[in-house]
Fold this protein.
Amino acid sequence: MAMTLGMGRRETQVVGLISFAHMLSHLYMLVLPPLFPVIRADLGLDYAALGVATAVFAAFTGVLQTPMGFVCERIGSRPVLVCGLFLNGAAIALVSVIDSYWQLIALMALAGVGSSVFHPADYSILSGTVSEKRLGRAFSIHTFGGSIGFAVAPFVMVTLYELTNWRTAVAIVGGIGVALSIVLLACSGVIGEGGAPKKRGAGSLTWRDMVTSPTVMLFFTFYAASSAANAGISQFAVSALIDIYGISLTTANLALTVYMIASLIAVLPGGLLADYTKHHNLTLIASFTVSAAMIAVVGLSGLPFWIALVLLASVGALRGLVNTSRDIMVRHAVPGASVGTVFAFVTTGFMFGQAVSPTIYGLLMDGASPGMVFWASAGFSLICIGTAIPAGWVRPAAGKPV
C-alpha cells in the first residue's frame, strides 16, 4: 500500500492495529441506529427513548475524553486503549441480552466510557511510535479508519440482522472489539513504549494549562467550527437542496453521498500532503477559503444542479484533504507535552460544534431560508480560517508544554 511505503514493519503493524481499533470505535457509535425499528418493536420503546440511549453514549465519550488523556499520561496509553476497547466491545455485546430500557442506558453509558479512550490513546501511541517524517500518513490512515467505521456501520448491521437477528448482530460486532482488545494485549511488544507514562512534572499538562493556552484554544475553536461547517451539509443539505433546486429526495441524497465519498477519498492523499509540506496552516487557509466560496455558491438559486453537485464534491474533497494537516499542527504545537491529552481536549470541540450548530441550521430552514444553510456553513469555514492564521504563528516556548 502506497500510504505505508517507507514505514518500518513495526510502524506498519502499529498503524494497522490502532486504525482498526479506531474503525471499530466509530462503528460502535452507529451500531444501534440502523436497527432502531426492530429494537423499538422488540423492547416496546419509542424513538425518542432510543435517541436518548445514543445521546448517553456520546455524552460519556465527550465528557471523559480529556480525563482519559490524563490517565494515559499517568499509566501509559497502551493499557488504557486495551481496557477501553474491551469495555466498549463488551458493553455493545451485552446489549444483545437486555430486557429493559434501563439496562440499555447503563450499557450505553459503559460503552461511552470505553469509547472515550481512543483519541488520547491512539494519538499518543502513534506519536510515540511513528517517525515524524511519516506521521502525516499514519494520522491519515487512522482518520480513514474511523471514517470507514461510520460508512460501513449501516451495511454491516443490516446485513448481520438479515442473516441472524438484531441481538446476534450486536453480539457479533461487540465480540470483535473484545477479541481485538485481546490481540492488542498480546501485541504489547509491537506497540512497545508508544504512549508510555510520563514522569510527574515532565511536560505534564493540567486543565488550566490547556484552557489558558492561546494555541490549544485556537485549535479547540477550529475543531468546533469545522465540525459545525460540516454538520450543515451532512444534516441539512438534503432538505435545503430539495427546496432550492426542486429535486427529488433520492437525487438530494445522492448529492450528499457524493460529498461524503469525496471527503473520505481525499483523507489519504491529505496524509501524503501533510508529510511533504512544512506550511500546514497555509494548507488549511487555502482549503477553507476555496471551500467556503464554493459552498456559498451552492446556496444561490438559479444554478444548474449539476454545477452544485460538482461544487459539493469539491468541497468534500477539500475538507477531507486537510484533516491530517490540522492534526499535524496540533502535534507540532505541543512538543514535550502529552499529545494524547491535548488531542482529547481539542477534539471535544467536534462534539461541541455538532451539539450547537444543528439548532442554528434548523432555525434557518424553518425560516424558509434554505440557501442560508450553505452560507452558514461557509461562515463557519471563515472562522476556521481566522483560527488557522494565528495558530500558524504561535509557537510554544522551548521546554514548555503549550
